[in-house]
Write a structure and sequence with these properties.
Chain lengths: 185, 177
C-alpha cells in the first residue's frame, strides 16, 4: 500500500468578491487594474457575473450578499444579487431591493442560507436602471474582463432562474459579494 | 499498481501573515492598497480580527507583528472562524525593538486546515505604533476584518465580532514549523 498525502486545498474566505484569491483577484492585481471608483450602472436591467471556485473538500454557506454603493444613491433604483452554477442556473438570489440611503458604504442584504459545495460558480448582480452609483473595478479593455471569465446578461433584473451568459462589452465589474457570516457592515 | 498523485505543494511559506496569500494579500493588492505610515492602534484594548485561510494543517511555532515605536503590551491569538473559539494565544508581551518585527514563541500548536482569524490587541495608543495596511474601511470590511471592544486588555475565549470601525489591518501573523 502506498501512502498518498492529502492534496492541500484552499478553504474559501469568509467574504467572496471578485477580488478574492478564489475568484479573479490575482489577475486583477497582476494586471494592475485601475483603482475601484464610483460610477453609474452601465445598462438598465443588465446583470454582471464574476466566477469563483469552491475547492475540493470545502463548502461555503452564503448567508448575506453585499455591494458597495457609489458616490450617489438612488431611491428609484433596485438591485439584486445572487449565485449561479456554471450552467447559468440560479441557486439563490435576494430579489429586487431598493438601493440604500447611504452613499460610499457597503450595503448588505439577507439571502436564504445556501450551501455551496466544491465547484465552479458565478456571483451575479443586476440593477433596474442607471440612476445611483456603485463602486466598480475596470480594466482598460473589454478583453481584460472577458479573459478573466467575466460575463454579462441583458434583461436580467431581477435575476432570473436561468441566464444566457454573454461576453461583456466592457471590463467593468461592480464590487459586490457574499458573506459566510452574518456580520458584514 | 497503485497510482500515487504527486503532492501539489511540498513546502509552505513559514511566515503566514494578515497580508500574505493566506490572508488578505490578494484582494488588498487588487485594490492597490499601499502599506501605510506607522500608526497608533486605533483604540486601546481594541481587538482586530483578520481572516486567515490554511489549506493544510500546520504547527504554529510563533506569533509575530511589526513594531513602529514601542510602548505598552501586545496580545495575539488565533481563532476558529466558524466557532469563534480561541485556539491559541500569547501572553501579554511588552513591545520591544522599535521598527523591527517582534516574535513571541509558543508551545508548538497543531491546527487543522480551515478558516481562522488572527487576533491582535494593543494596550495603549500613546507612543506605540505599528506597521499596517492603509486599506479603506469599506474594503477592510468586505475582506472580512472585524473587531471587538470589550474594554479590557485580554483575548476572550470566544470572539464576539462587531463591525470594523477604522480601516486598520496590522501587518502580523504566525510562524509555522
Amino acid at each position: 500500500m502506498t501512502y498518498a498525502p492529502p492534496i492541500p486545498r484552499r478553504p474559501p474566505p469568509v467574504m467572496i468578491t471578485c477580488l478574492s484569491a478564489i475568484s479573479t483577484g490575482r489577475e486583477i492585481a497582476g494586471r494592475q487594474w485601475t483603482l475601484p471608483s464610483t460610477g453609474a450602472w452601465a445598462e438598465a436591467n443588465a446583470a454582471h457575473f464574476f466566477p469563483f471556485i469552491i475547492d475540493y473538500n470545502w463548502t461555503f454557506t452564503a448567508v448575506k450578499g453585499f455591494w458597495h454603493n457609489g458616490a450617489t444613491v438612488s431611491a428609484t433604483n433596485t438591485i439584486d444579487v445572487g449565485i449561479y452554477d456554471s450552467a447559468g442556473t440560479r441557486l439563490v438570489s435576494m430579489g429586487a431591493t431598493t438601493q440604500g440611503a447611504t452613499a460610499s458604504v457597503l450595503q448588505e442584504v439577507n439571502i436564504t442560507d445556501t450551501v455551496l459545495g466544491p465547484g465552479f460558480y458565478y456571483a451575479a448582480m443586476s440593477a433596474l436602471n442607471t440612476t445611483g452609483a456603485f463602486l466598480r473595478s475596470f480594466g482598460p479593455t473589454a478583453a481584460d474582463g472577458t479573459g478573466m471569465g467575466f460575463k454579462k446578461a441583458v434583461t436580467s433584473h431581477p435575476l432570473p432562474a436561468s441566464v444566457t451568459l454573454t461576453t461583456p462589452t466592457t471590463s467593468v465589474m461592480p464590487f459586490f459579494g457574499f458573506s459566510a457570516r452574518a456580520l458584514v457592515v | 499498481m497503485t497510482f500515487t498523485p504527486p503532492p501539489t505543494k511540498v513546502f509552505y511559506n513559514k511566515y503566514l501573515s494578515t497580508l500574505g496569500d493566506e490572508g488578505m494579500g490578494v484582494p488588498n493588492a487588487a485594490v492597490k492598497t499601499a502599506q501605510g505610515a506607522l500608526l497608533a492602534w486605533p483604540a486601546a484594548n481594541r481587538i482586530i480580527y483578520c481572516p486567515l485561510e490554511l489549506e493544510r494543517p500546520v504547527t504554529i511555532d510563533k506569533f509575530w507583528w511589526s513594531n513602529g515605536a514601542v510602548a505598552g503590551n501586545v496580545l495575539m491569538g488565533l481563532y476558529n472562524a466558524i466557532t469563534l473559539a480561541k485556539v491559541v494565544d500569547i501572553p501579554s508581551t511588552v513591545m520591544a525593538g522599535a521598527t523591527t518585527t517582534q516574535e513571541v514563541d509558543i508551545t508548538g500548536t497543531k491546527v487543522a486546515s480551515g478558516r481562522y482569524y488572527i487576533a491582535q490587541s494593543a494596550s495603549t495608543i500613546t507612543t506605540a505604533t505599528f506597521t499596517r495596511s492603509a486599506v479603506s474601511l469599506q474594503f477592510a470590511k468586505a475582506f472580512g476584518v472585524a473587531e471587538e471592544n470589550a474594554g479590557t486588555f485580554a483575548l476572550p475565549a470566544t470572539a464576539t465580532l462587531v463591525a470594523h470601525t477604522v480601516g486598520y489591518v496590522p501587518v502580523s501573523g504566525i510562524i509555522i514549523l
